[in-house]
């Protein structure tokens, strides 16, 4: 089991996991992955070269009383 950035060739596996977990069709997950490419926005856990879990995140800036801090918005957390 390894955690790493998704590879471009795993897009279909990610879309299948998305459909299984969230019920959306390929057009929805495809639009998301077009806007936020998996290679730079999605971490995966793979088991024997098969995607078993994913989480997508986008960097954000948090504005606090201490100033601006880097953060991440987690989205599409899915496990097979």
In words, what does this structure look like?
The structure is a single chain. The protein is an alpha+beta fold. It is built from three helices and four strands. The protein has helices at 11-22, 26-35, 38-41, and strands at residues 2-5, 42-47, 50-64, 67-79. The protein starts with a strand and ends with a strand.
Provide a concise account of the structure shown.
This protein has helices at 11-22, 26-35, 38-41, and strands spanning 2-5, 42-47, 50-64, 67-79. It is of the alpha+beta class. It has a four-stranded antiparallel beta sheet with strand order 1-2-3-4.
Count of separate DSSP helical elements: 3
- Sheet of most strands: 4 strands, antiparallel
What is the N-to-C succession of helices and strands? EHHHEEE
Q: What is the helical fraction, as a range of percent?
A: 25-40%
**End-to-end CA span:** 13 Å
Strand content: over 45%
Mean pLDDT: 95
Any idea what the radius of gyration is? 14 Å
From the structure above, extract its key features.
80 residues, alpha+beta, four-stranded antiparallel beta sheet, 3 helices, 4 strands, 32% helix
Topology diagram in text:
Elements: E1 2-5, H1 11-22, H2 26-35, H3 38-41, E2 42-47, E3 50-64, E4 67-79
Antiparallel strand pairs: 1-2, 2-3, 3-4
